[in-house]
Specification:
This protein is mainly α. It has one domain.
């Protein structure tokens, strides 16, 4: 049975830390516009999530990959925002 979208989001969030994807996170922070760095972060998030889940079915990979791409997008947006010094208030 494939993982749900919500489960995938929670799983990706659980591995979105420096222990699992630290070097990839730093690479993205160094160059927010690098699609190569963002894709490497997505791939590493997927790898770590699948390792935690122990389910490499194509259905689960598709859902986890979508969740990882969304999380990387949020990370880039948030990091750019905080780096710009804008508080939004």
């Amino acid at each position: 049975m494939a993982i749900t979208t919500e489960e995938a989001q929670e799983l990706v969030e659980s591995v979105f830390d420096f222990d699992h994807v630290g070097s990839e996170m730093l690479a993205v922070r160094k160059n927010f516009d690098s699609m190569e760095a963002q894709e490497a972060l997505v791939e590493e998030l997927v790898r770590a999530a699948v390792e935690e889940l122990k389910d490499a079915s194509q259905e689960s990979l598709t859902v986890i990959t979508a969740a990882a791409k969304a999380r990387v997008g949020e990370f880039v947006k948030g990091a750019k925002f905080s780096q710009s010094g804008c508080s939004g208030l």
